[in-house]
UniProtKB/TrEMBL annotation:
<keyword id="KW-0472">Membrane</keyword>
<dbReference type="InterPro" id="IPR036259">
    <property type="entry name" value="MFS_trans_sf"/>
</dbReference>
<feature type="transmembrane region" description="Helical">
    <location>
        <begin position="22"/>
        <end position="43"/>
    </location>
</feature>
<feature type="transmembrane region" description="Helical">
    <location>
        <begin position="55"/>
        <end position="72"/>
    </location>
</feature>
<keyword id="KW-1003">Cell membrane</keyword>
<feature type="transmembrane region" description="Helical">
    <location>
        <begin position="268"/>
        <end position="286"/>
    </location>
</feature>
<dbReference type="GO" id="GO:0022857">
    <property type="term" value="F:transmembrane transporter activity"/>
</dbReference>
<dbReference type="InterPro" id="IPR020846">
    <property type="entry name" value="MFS_dom"/>
</dbReference>
<feature type="transmembrane region" description="Helical">
    <location>
        <begin position="120"/>
        <end position="140"/>
    </location>
</feature>
<dbReference type="InterPro" id="IPR050171">
    <property type="entry name" value="MFS_Transporters"/>
</dbReference>
<keyword id="KW-0812">Transmembrane</keyword>
<feature type="transmembrane region" description="Helical">
    <location>
        <begin position="292"/>
        <end position="312"/>
    </location>
</feature>
<keyword id="KW-0813">Transport</keyword>
<dbReference type="Pfam" id="PF07690">
    <property type="entry name" value="MFS_1"/>
</dbReference>
<feature type="transmembrane region" description="Helical">
    <location>
        <begin position="78"/>
        <end position="99"/>
    </location>
</feature>
<feature type="transmembrane region" description="Helical">
    <location>
        <begin position="146"/>
        <end position="164"/>
    </location>
</feature>
<feature type="transmembrane region" description="Helical">
    <location>
        <begin position="359"/>
        <end position="378"/>
    </location>
</feature>
Length: 387
């Protein structure tokens, strides 16, 4: 559902709706990020209160009108409204699949489970970005590229309703068998969970800020990379390939990085991944050829793969099972606020200084985030211990 927008929507903003301001053109990412971030928080709370499956099915129901709105939209604000619905849908569905997989696996395989979950999502995003880019190159920006989204919504709703089973009982069982510790008590209120995950607990809060910066990068890539590549003279076909390459490597890489974090630990993989992302962004800002951009996109995908499932696994390591779903919701609140912050910050910077200068600035911010993890975060994996 998200992949259908990656190649087409930035070009729709400029070519169809005539938006000449980067800040205005990126409003759909801002709307998506805000809606998804706050729905993530609610998804964690609701999945503990009502169960995982009802929240998942509700998320797919919200997704159904999105591709039709994108096809029909006579005004840019309809596109923005469709992305509010998409953000709500993503917050409910993706948060719940993360929580369900954490329910189903023990601590020794938590990284692997997160790698599988995130890999499935981002490989689908990459394939769809490539497909819709090819469709747009041959049939135009609307309506054909968004027809695949209608099929995805039907499949997601059908599978979630008919095939998925409730997993909350697994978390309840784990909570009943896990002894309460002084560091992570089992009886936290919603406010205490938010404070612990956001600010107080070193590993949880370090993961939250790194997640925000990681998705800030993704908001930048989503909104500005297609415009940069087209402005440099690339056609829609190569642009779609570049746009798909980054999430494809991201998706495939998570199959390995999630499992490696179970073996090597979380902290150093997160630190290294943030620094690799910073270097890749700097390379995209500094170069202007298809080959150089392709190599940098591969590096950006690899760095993101090192970070993405590992951050989620670290939340699962630290949070007590009785409030783990809420902690995942708070973490994903901060992480997906990165889309909104990225859209707003990079749009303002690009309007004021240019696209390349905006990318340089975000590269520096990403490097700083990685160094903060290196200084503040401790190792969370049970077999590695605190380091």
């Amino acid at each position: 559902m998200l992949g259908q927008e990656r190649t087409v929507l930035p070009l729709l903003a400029t070519d169809v709706f005539g938006l000449d301001s980067y800040t205005a053109a990126l409003t759909y990412i801002l709307a998506f990020g805000l809606a998804k971030a706050f729905t993530n928080y609610l998804a964690g709370t609701w999945s503990e209160r009502y169960g995982r499956k009802p929240v998942l099915v509700a998320g797919w129901l919200v997704a159904v009108p999105v591709p039709m709105l994108l096809i029909w939209a006579p005004d840019w604000w309809i596109v923005v409204g469709a992305n509010v619905l998409l953000g709500i849908s993503q917050g409910l569905t993706w948060s719940t699949t993360v929580i369900m997989k954490i329910d189903l696996v023990g601590p020794s395989r938590r990284g692997l489970a997160m790698g599988l979950n995130e890999s499935a999502g981002y490989l689908a995003l990459a394939v769809t970005a490539l497909i819709t880019g090819e469709i747009a190159a041959n049939a135009g920006l609307r309506p054909e590229p968004f027809l695949v989204g209608i099929a995805y919504a039907a499949l997601g709703l059908g599978l979630s309703t008919l095939a998925v089973r409730e997993t909350r009982g697994h978390a309840d069982h784990e909570a009943s068998t896990q002894a309460q510790t002084g560091d992570q008590p089992s009886d936290l209120t919603d406010r205490q969970v938010f404070t612990q995950t956001s600010f107080r607990e070193p590993a949880l809060s370090s993961a939250s800020q790194a997640g925000l910066v990681n998705n800030l990068n993704d908001g930048l890539a989503w909104g500005l990379f297609p415009v940069l590549f087209i402005s440099a003279g690339l056609s829609l076909g190569p642009t779609g390939l570049l746009v798909a390459l980054y999430p494809a490597v991201w998706g495939l890489g998570q199959l390995a990085s999630g499992a490696l974090s179970d073996r090597w630990g979380r902290k150093h993989l997160i630190t290294a991944g943030m620094l690799v992302q910073a270097a890749a962004l700097a390379a995209i800002a500094a170069t202007d050829t298809l080959t150089a951009w392709a190599l940098a996109s591969i590096a950006l995908g690899a760095g993101t793969a090192m970070v993405y499932p590992t951050l989620l696994a670290s939340i699962g390591d630290v949070a007590h099972p009785s409030w783990r779903a809420r902690a995942v919701g708070v973490y994903r609140l901060w992480r997906d606020l990165g889309f909104a912050v990225g859209a707003l910050l990079t749009g303002v910077l690009a309007d004021a200084f240019g696209i390349r200068e905006a990318i340089w600035a975000i590269a520096g911010l990403t490097a700083g985030s990685g160094l903060l993890v290196a200084v503040r975060m401790y190792e969370t994996h049970p077999r590695q211990g605190r380091q």
